[in-house]
Amino acid sequence: MNATSAAVTAAVTFVWLGMVLAISFLEAPLKFRAPGVTVPIGLGIGRVVFRALNRVEAVLAAAAIVAVAVGGPPVSVGVLTAVAALLLAVQLLVIRPRLNRRSDRVLAGETLPRSRAHHVYVATESAKVLALLALGVNALIA
Description:
By secondary structure, the protein is mostly helical. The protein has helices spanning 3-31, 39-71, 75-107, 116-141.
């Protein structure tokens, strides 16, 4: 992998990783602990924040894919890029629509039990974090 592509891949990957860690594992759970934040308010904030995060993630994923494609990467970098992008696609195309439908119901006043889709989202987010960490490290040593 050429040095420029490796540097761009690593930089994009670590920015992406930092955003996911900050939003998904710090902001998201903490907002519900803030005084006066009800479940509907927290869901409303979460929808706005995650919509913005996911847009930025899509741009970062595209940048990583281009950097990797141009750089002639080792197999590990190509596979990890594909895994991270695939996990993001699953979140955006499969899991998030389910969560959005559920949050629509809660915002409309329904009381619902905990969501399995939320647990699946957290699991894919955790897997994406591991993939991004491995990708960033592999890009640095490529």
